[in-house]
Amino acid sequence: MKKAVVFGASGFVGSHLLDQLLNSAEYERVTAIVRSNLPIRHPKLNMLIGDLDTLPELKDQIEADEVFITLGGKTPKIHYDYPLLAAQIAKEKGAKAVFIVTAVGASSQSRMSYLRTKGEIERDLIALDFDHTHLFRPSMIMGNRGEFHLVERVVLAIWSVLNPFFIGGIRRYKGMKASNIARAMLRAAQNPSGKVKVYHWKDMKDLL
Ligand SMILES: NC(=O)c1ccc[n+]([C@@H]2O[C@H](COP(=O)([O-])OP(=O)(O)OC[C@H]3O[C@@H](n4cnc5c(N)ncnc54)[C@H](OP(=O)(O)O)[C@@H]3O)[C@@H](O)[C@H]2O)c1
């Protein structure tokens, strides 16, 4: 049985992922590094309170075969610095594979700063030389976040209408439910082939 560490477990994709990892017979221990306590109790769950600044202090409590990163936010620190440190520490503590959610269009050459940062973290995670580096690049993350944000609801509604029209070369822009992105990550971890693998919509769908 495996041990996993998850960064971003309180988020939309991360909360589905945590639930799925805890309910998978393949994992004996799931460590979630969160900023505040999650309302979850589970015999396999090792919940640690921390963030980018305090992560080094938690090192001794982290033990992992795999590291999953679903962190998201508004600053480059959360898209780059934190995931990089998380992966470095997990590797130091035994992780052989890293699974991260970035975004469709991620490229270190992008002119858009969000996509450039996503590309830079992909590039620098690959450079850490895990046995397996799996990069998940969703377009719109669909589903109910359980919070009401008007703009987000409108964007999601528009995306739901557009979704069937993303075909051929642009099908990678199809939206995918957070729960399915999480499931694709878990399935990829069941059989991690290849040193570096990039997943767009179709690649994730094929894993479901
Ligand atoms: N939304 C989309 O449609 C979309 C599309 C493509 C790609 N993506 C990418 O997909 C990934 C997952 O997205 P999501 O919607 O699941 O993210 P989310 O719901 O916003 O979750 C973000 C996670 O990061 C944590 N976090 C945020 N700021 C932090 C900080 N300063 N220190 C420590 N932890 C922090 C949050 O913890 P707290 O609960 O403590 O805040 C939460 O666990 C992100 O990288 C995002 O850029 C999103």
Automatic annotation (TrEMBL):
Pfam families: NAD_binding_10
InterPro entries: NAD(P)-bd_dom, NAD(P)-bd_dom_sf
Lineage: superkingdom: Bacteria
Chain segments annotated as transmembrane: none
Every NAD(P)-binding domain range: 8-145
Protein name: NAD-dependent epimerase/dehydratase
Organism encoding this protein: Paenibacillus curdlanolyticus YK9
